[in-house]
Each structure stands twice: as C-alpha cells, then as structure tokens.
Amino acid sequence: MLEVNHASKIFAKGTPNQKIALRNLNLSLKEGEFVTVLGSNGAGKSTLFNAICGSFILDEGSIRLDGRDITFLSEHKRARQIGRLFQDPMKGTAPNLTIEENLALSYSRNSKGLFSKAVGKKERELFREKLRTFDMGLEDRMKTKIGLLSGGQRQVVTLLMSTIVTPKLLLLDEHTAALDPATSEKVMEITNRIVKENNINTLMITHNMASALVTGNRTIMLDDGEIIFDMTEEKRKGMTVSDLMVMYSEKKQQNFDNDRILLSN
Amino acid sequence: MSVFIGSMELGLLYAIMVMGIYISFRVLNIPDLTTEGSFTFGLVISALFVTKGHPVLGLFMAIAAGAVAGIVTGFLQTKMNIHPVLAGILTMSGLYSINLWVLDGSSNLTLLGTESIYTMLRSQFEGLSRDTVELMIGAVIVLIVIVILYFFFQTELGLAIRATGDNPDMVRASSINVDTMKMIALAISNGLIALCGGLITQYQSFADVNSGVGTLVVGLASVIIGEVFFGRRSLTIGFISCVAGSVIYRYIIAIAINSQWFPAYMLKLVSSIIVALALALPVIKTKIVESKAKRRRKSC
Ligand SMILES: Nc1ncnc2c1ncn2[C@@H]1O[C@H](COP(=O)(O)OP(=O)(O)OP(=O)(O)O)[C@@H](O)[C@H]1O
Ligand SMILES: [Mg+2]
User: N or C end: fewer C-beta atoms under 10 angstroms in chain B?
Assistant: First the structure.
C-alpha cells in the first residue's frame, strides 16, 4: 500500500556540510501493517517521514501510496491521506482555537462545502462521543482553547484529529517522547486502539526498543539513511533488546569492515 | 455639525478599515502594508463611479479593487516568497500610480453636486436630520459587516483562515492550502479597507490620492485602543472592539485638537507614539519587573 523505491535525499549538496540523509532506501508496506521504526539520532527517520509527507521532493526515487504515484504531489494534497504526529505536542494543534474548532478543521477533509458551518450540531456530537472514549474529561471542555491543555491532552486531541477522517497512512514521530511515563503509556494505549479499530497502516518512530518490539507487527531499523534490518512478526518474536543491540553492532562492524576494504583497495 | 457627532460618524466609517486591519494583523498575524494603497484604491474607484452616476455600484467595485490588491500582496508573499512587509510596500507603491491613473492623472477630484449614497439616502429620509442619516449609514454598514464576518469566520473556510494565523503547519496537515488561505484573508482585509475608502470619499464629496497616508497607523492605533477596553478575547468581540477603538480614537483626536494640546499636523506623530508604546508594553513591563527584582536582591 506504501512503496518507497530507491529514495535518496542529500542535504546541502556540493557544500562542506553535505549530508546524505536517505541512501537509496526501499520500503514497502502491506495493507494493515503497523511498523515500528528504530534508529539512532540522525539516522534519517524523520527525513523519511518528511519525504513521505512531501515536506521536500526526493532527489531520486519514487513514492506510491495506495497505487498512486505521489512523488511530486504537494504536501497539503498528500495530507488528505496521511495523518502525522510529532514529538512536540504544540505542533499539531492551533493553540488559540478551541478543541472543537481544531477537530472541525481536520474533519473538514470530509468537507460539506467551504461555506458550511464548521462546527454544527452533528459534528459536535461526533467529537464529544470520540473524546469520551479517551476517559480524560475532554468531552466536557470542547470550548476550551487548546493552548490551555497539557502536552498529553494536546497529543491525544492531535491523534484524534489526524484519524477522525481515517487516513490511509499514519506517521507517528516519537509522539509520546515529550510526555511523562504514565501519560505516555496512556497515549500509546489510545494509539493502539485507534490503529486497530480503524485498521490504519502505521509507521511509528520510537527510541524505546522494548516497546518497539511488542508494538505493531513489524520493526525496522534505520542507520545512516538506510534500513539495516527489517523484521516481520515471526522474526521479531522472542527477540530481546540485547539481541537487537548485538545485531546492531554486528551490522555496524560489517559496514565498517566493508568501508575499510574499499579504502584499502 | 457638532464635533461630537462628526467624530462618531468618522469613527464608524473608519471602523470598517480597522476591522480589515484586524484581520491581517491579529487573525492572520501578518503585518500588511498594502493598507494605504488599497484604501486610496477603493477611494478613487468609488469616486470614479460616483462621477459616472453609480454610487452604490462604486462601493462594490471598491471592495473588488481592494480584494485584488490584497491578492497581489498575498501572491507576492506566498508564491514569490517575498517578505510580507516588503510585499505590502510593493503593492502599495505600485497602487499609487494606478490611483493617479484612475483619476486621469490628477491628484484630486471634487464630487460636489454629484449623487452619492449620502445624497440619495438624505432625500429618501427627508424627515430626518442630516446627521441622523449620516450616522445611520455608518452604523448600518458597520453592523452588516460585523454580521457577515461573524458568520464567515464560523464556516469551514473562515476556520481555516483563523487556524492559518495560529499554526500554518497544522493547517497544511489538515490538507488545506495555506497559501490560498492567506490570499483569501488578505483579499477580505483589503476589500474592507477599500470599502472604507469608498465610503469616505462619498462622505466628504472629495477624492485625493494622498488621503491614504498614515491610515495604517491610525488603524493599528484603533485596534490597540479597542483592545485596551475589551482585551483580546473571541473574534467577534475583537471586531466590536475595533469599532469601539475607532470611535474612541476619533474622540481622542477631537479633544486633543479642541483643547489645543498640539496642532493638527502633529496627529500622525501622536498616533505613531501610541502604537509604538502599545506594542512595546509587554517588553516594558518585563523590564520593570526585572529591574525591581534586581534591586530587591541587591538590597538583601
Ligand atoms: N533540512 C535539513 N537540512 C540539512 N540537513 C538536514 C535537514 N533535515 C535533516 N538533516 C540531516 O539529516 C540527518 C537525518 O536527520 P533526521 O532528522 O531524519 O534524523 P532522525 O533519525 O529523525 O533523528 P532523531 O532521532 O534525532 O530525531 C541528520 O544528520 C540531519 O542533520
Ligand atoms: Mg527525528
């Protein structure tokens, strides 16, 4: 359903700061997959998401979503089918608009027309019903400005915003990293439920290896702009964090050796 | 005509411009310098149609003219990536030539003896005094504008524009074209500003290509004065506070001139100082708090 083919992206090409952020990367998602994405800082995880969302256009390669070539499609047009959450809870919501107004804005993907009332009775009912399932009391604060909510509450609202019109693909970029452990767990639980209920194809970046191995049904690891391993459900069963660390350092050693061979020749 | 009523009349008419400035300055969060150009553009277009015998059509054409000016500025800002302040200056400066062109190269035009919406409505309501009719025209148009804006900003489009000023990334993530939203908002903003110019010229029976000078600062001062009284709350209250700010501004000026605190030509300087002080207030406040804290710690 998602096909990233031979994706390459070089930042500041031809300058001393040149950085190869994506290296001929291939990734293919099947319908119903929930993939956790691991990788050290600077591995290119967010860059991969940016490429899929259209924050920039790839130097090389192509992206297909649901059979359609979106390589050159503008960012806001891709957003019709792609929901995205960031680490920073401030990023996904408009602070001076109320909860219901924020939700209405994302719900307008299902537009009834530009000049129709954004928050009608029906919408308000729907939003309240959805918010109630989170058990955070947000359904009684729909006229509160989002800027007054806590980070965790904002992130939950953002999660609902990006899935209220079911997207083809959901991209989660360390969306629980800025939250305290309890809130983070709660947001993770809500995430799992929404993804499962709506059967949304999901990519989730996380630095928590233990949770990456048990969340979703596939785990990939990025390093230096490449996918260095890709484990489907059966392969990652029984895998522990230390197994993963061993695999990672072996892979790094192997790359290092290859480089040395290249250099010494 | 008493000064009291005259200030009220001007305050109401200029309130339309103030609401336009509010849309760019507060809703969209963009300083838009197109104002002085679009105000005069609306003014000369309206004057032109008055001379041709179409005062009402003139007002609608003024709105359209201002909207076009706003779209040009929006296009320069978004598609051409020119700094918003510079984009506004470019449009404003270009409009100066266009405004002269509309008036056939002359810098002013008198409309005495021609039919305007003022003369039309005065003869409609013969029983009422001249001041009453003029006040009513201002009040009714302001009311209509507020009602339209109130409903507009609750529509999907209106909501998207408000969100664009608040968090453009989130708007893009909701699959909405941010550039288009900015252009629409600037079109509405400058359409209102031009409507104000169009009304002013019919009110004064006179058009002058230099009458836009300083209007932006007047507008900003009015927005800020309104916020002193109403605070910054909902959008609707914001528009009402624009009207209040605009009227209060006219009274401050009337009082200042009548009491001869300063000569009339100092008005623009005074307006600039009001705006600068109001915008600097948050910084001044924190500086005062900091220096107090410093002194306290030193004295311990
Ligand atoms: N716009 C940009 N211009 C220049 N370099 C960039 C840009 N965006 C990313 N990079 C570089 O590309 C590399 C990959 O960055 P990316 O943000 O994708 O890392 P990441 O895997 O998300 O890391 P983290 O775990 O820290 O979020 C980094 O070296 C970064 O400095
Ligand atoms: Mg990142």
Answer: C
